[in-house]
Each structure stands twice: as C-alpha cells, then as structure tokens.
Amino acid sequence: MRLTTAMLADAAQVQGGKLFVLGGGFDTISARKLPVIHRSLTVALVAEIEPDERHRDLEISLRLIDEDGVDMGVEAKGKLRVGAPPNLPPGSSSIVPIVSPFHGIEFPDAKGYAFVVTFEDEELDRIRFRVVRVG
C-alpha cells in the first residue's frame, strides 16, 4: 500500500468509491486562547492497494504526536479489506479513499503536530500541521 493523498479536512466522506472533502488541505489551526479544543477534524487519505494486498485484512493506524514526538493520546486503528473490481485489468492496483474523523481533540500549546499514518507497523506518511495563537 502507498498513499497518493493525505490531508486534513473539516469533514470528509466516502461514497460510491469517491472521496468528498469539505474544507480540506489546510496546515494551520488558529486559536484565540490555549489550550484549544478542536471540535471536528478529519484525516482524508487515498491509498493505492497492490494486487497482492487484496482479499486480506490490511491494518492501518493514525496517531497524533506533537513536534517533539510526544504521543498526544489520540489514535484510530482499523482494518481494511479490498477486493478486486470486476472491470480492473489483471495486475492493476486499486485506488481506495479512506476517512477518519476525530472529535474534541485538545491542543495544549501553539506548536507543530502530525498525524502519523502506519500500515502494518510501517510508517507511510506524516500529515504535519501547526496550532497558532491569534488575537
């Protein structure tokens, strides 16, 4: 598996094999005071699944860390099972959108953070962003 897209969004959903994103692709959360609780944040991914990865459980996890690598205690784990669409040429990979919403995340400080995306215990990507104090 490899990721072709990894982003933060205000909201996202998968419907009919397509990824629908609202307010996606940002890298900064602005806060008037700290700590701040962000009500809703979604990680939106698009994965390319190889033929040998089909028809088995693929373990994916997301974990939030701060810029110092400290675990923030926010995590999502899941298993994905992808079949072969009937119209896919032999040997072709599949494109699969994935979303994971998070609610009520508390950010204690103005600094950098990242969602670490892992597939079967191997890091695929880090979605980096920052929290800044404004006003």
Describe the overall structure.
This protein has 135 residues and is mostly beta strands. The protein has a single domain (2-133), classed as Immunoglobulin-like, CATH 2.60.40.2550. Helices cover 0% and strands 68% of the residues. It has strands at 2-15, 18-24, 28-31, 36-49, 58-66, 71-80, 94-107, 112-119, 122-133.
Give short descriptive properties of this protein.
single chain, 135 residues, mainly beta, Immunoglobulin-like, 5-stranded mixed β-sheet, 9 strands
Task: Outline the secondary-structure elements.
Layout: E1 2-15, E2 18-24, E3 28-31, E4 36-49, E5 58-66, E6 71-80, E7 94-107, E8 112-119, E9 122-133
Parallel strand pairs: 3-9
Antiparallel strand pairs: 1-2, 1-4, 4-7, 5-6, 5-8, 8-9
